[in-house]
Write a structure and sequence with these properties.
This protein has 5 helices and 4 strands. It is mostly helical. The two termini are 27 Å apart.
């Protein structure tokens, strides 16, 4: 259901402009580095300050935690956060998130016979059962998609060339 909401309602119509639209001057974003890779901001807001991010950052965040959750579920080395680069375009993130969705579904099929209580450590500092990781991933997906939806709609309001046609 979370993937359907993401793909049917937001990702299909995502544009580069929406990915980079800044809801606030302090918003966390994805930024092009000198080597042409895209890196996500990673800093904590000042105490008492609200957190702001761009759609690009949120799609990177999905990419990062899902890559990490897959590695944890497959008992692979967790990637360094800084090794996960945003693809650079709305088309690129659509392809990457679809690739990760297929990998996640494959992992779930393969894990059907696995011990659901097998310890995992991502995203927690201490072991929790595999079924908690799977549940957390579903919740995190819905939260991130809801945040993307809010920013998607605000960006469409502010960026005249990204408005959806009305009939």
């Amino acid at each position: 259901m979370g993937w359907s909401l993401a793909t049917d309602c937001y990702l299909a119509d995502l544009t580069d402009e929406i990915c980079h639209w800044m809801p606030h001057t302090s918003a966390a974003a994805v930024r092009r580095r000198g080597d042409a890779t895209w890196e996500a901001d990673w800093s904590e807001p000042l105490p008492g300050e609200p957190w702001h991010s761009t759609v690009g950052w949120l799609t990177w965040h999905l990419q990062w935690w899902l890559t990490s959750a897959l590695a944890e579920a497959r008992r692979e080395q967790l990637p360094e956060r800084t090794s996960i680069h945003w693809p650079g375009t709305a088309d690129g993130i659509r392809v990457e998130l679809e690739r990760l969705a297929v990998a996640w579904r494959t992992m779930l099929d393969e894990a059907a016979d696995a011990d659901p209580n097998r310890p995992t450590v991502f995203p927690w500092p201490y072991p929790r059962p595999l079924h908690r990781l799977v549940g957390w991933a579903n919740i995190e997906l819905m939260k991130n998609v809801a945040e993307i939806g809010i920013l998607f709609n605000l960006a469409q309001r502010d960026l005249p060339d990204t408005r959806m046609p009305t009939t």
